[in-house]
């Protein structure tokens, strides 16, 4: 994953909403992933305008049984020109990836514009 471009900071409301939405599916270990959101800090890790960000969870946050490197992706409702998912490592949230496939990065997406397949 890309290098952080800023020091870890408290997430914006939009960032919390995105992570919460992306962790909302009924995955194995999802409860623990959701529990990691409280007290997480974030840092932007891409300067293209997509606002993808690294996630740093508290040391005392519970680890998840989720064993994959990423959560299932959500897609934009409008033509699916964007997708977003969470990176995980050893059951802990480590990043949110946001990709705009039309080459026009528009920042952290509004969760109302996203859906899972
Ligand atoms: Zn980017």
Task: Please give a structural write-up.
By secondary structure, this protein is of the alpha+beta class. It has one domain. Helix content is 14%, strand content 26%. The protein is built from two helices and six strands; from the N terminus they run ααββββββ. It has a six-stranded antiparallel beta sheet with strand order 1-2-5-4-3-6, with helices on one face. The longest helix is centred in the first third of the chain and has 10 residues. The protein is globular and about 40 Å long. Bound molecules: zinc ion (ZN). The site of zinc ion has 5 residues, from loops.
What are the key terms here?
117 residues; alpha+beta; 2 helices; 6 strands; binds zinc ion
Dominant shape: globular
Number of β-strand runs: 6
Helix content: 10-25%
Which secondary-structure class do the elements indicate? alpha+beta
Number of individual domains:
1
Order of helices and strands: HHEEEEEE
| N- and C-termini, Cα separation | 25 Å
Please tally the helical runs, counting DSSP H or I stretches of 4 or more residues.
Answer: 2
Q: Strand order, biggest sheet? A: 1-2-5-4-3-6
Largest sheet: 6 strands, antiparallel
Strand content: 25-35%
Mean pLDDT: 94
